[in-house]
Amino acid sequence: MRYAQGGGLTDERREFREQLRLQAAERFARGEKSSVIAKDLRVHVRSVERWRRDWQAGGPRALRSRGPASLPRLDEAQFAVLEQELARGPVAHGWPDQRWTLSRVKTVIGRRFHMTYTIQGVRKLLVRHGFSCQVPARRAVERDEEAITGWVKETWPLAEAPRRRSGPTSSSRTRPASR
Questions:
Q1: Which among 48, 58, 57, 42 has a CA at the least distance from the CA of 28?
Q2: Helix residue ranges, H only, the chain
Q3: What gap in Å lies between CA 12 and CA 140, rounded to an integer?
């Protein structure tokens, strides 16, 4: 993934990066070295060299932002509707348990908006809007703490392999019994 949280750049961050490239272009025109520009702008020298090549080929216009890589297929209003659908829960959509999976969210998007997303596309869409992987907040109702405690004390030690006792060791390559 190229950017943190999988969401790409915000408009403000894209504008900030464009301003850096345009500052570099002014300094290219003055003949400054790439290493000096990189140090002053706090970017990698390779980025400055790439910007210089683009600047030489197309001038400052070549360093302008081209906008987001791709626009999300669900707009904000549609995503708000999707959030309401997710808040209703998986049972309301016909699944037997209260667990959202990426494939289930993909199915809801397909049914509600007649769009197809890949599983990774659904994940990126949800992460972009602040969703994350979750672990259930509550334990199962059927959980029996006494049975678990008994199993840990009685059954688990039998299943676990006995540990070898440490004894005196030798730095010799041959076994001590072979002498």
A1: 48
A2: 11-29, 34-41, 45-58, 76-88, 102-113, 119-128, 145-150, 156-159
A3: 45
Q: Which CB contacts under 8 angstroms, 24+ apart, belong to 85-91?
A: 85/112
- Report how far Cα 125 is from the mean position of its chain's Cα atoms: 11
Radius of gyration of the chain (CA): 29
Q: What is the pLDDT of residues 11-40, one digit of tens each?
A: 788 889 999 999 999 999 999 999 999 999
Q: Distance between CA 70 and CA 115 in Å, rounded?
A: 16
What pLDDT was estimated at residue 75? 85
Token reading at 83: 């959030």
Token pair belonging to 38? 């990189």
Task: Tell me the C-alpha distance between 38 and 33, whole Å.
Answer: 9
Length of the chain equals: 179
- The answer to whether the pTM exceeds 0.85 is no
Work out the angle at residue 109's Cα, subtended by the Cα atoms of residues 108 and 112, and round it to the nearest 5 degrees. 80
How far is Cα 85 from Cα 71, in angstroms, rounded to an integer?
22
Amino acid present at 13? R
Under a CB-based contact definition with an 8 Å cutoff, are residues 128 and 72 in contact?
A: yes
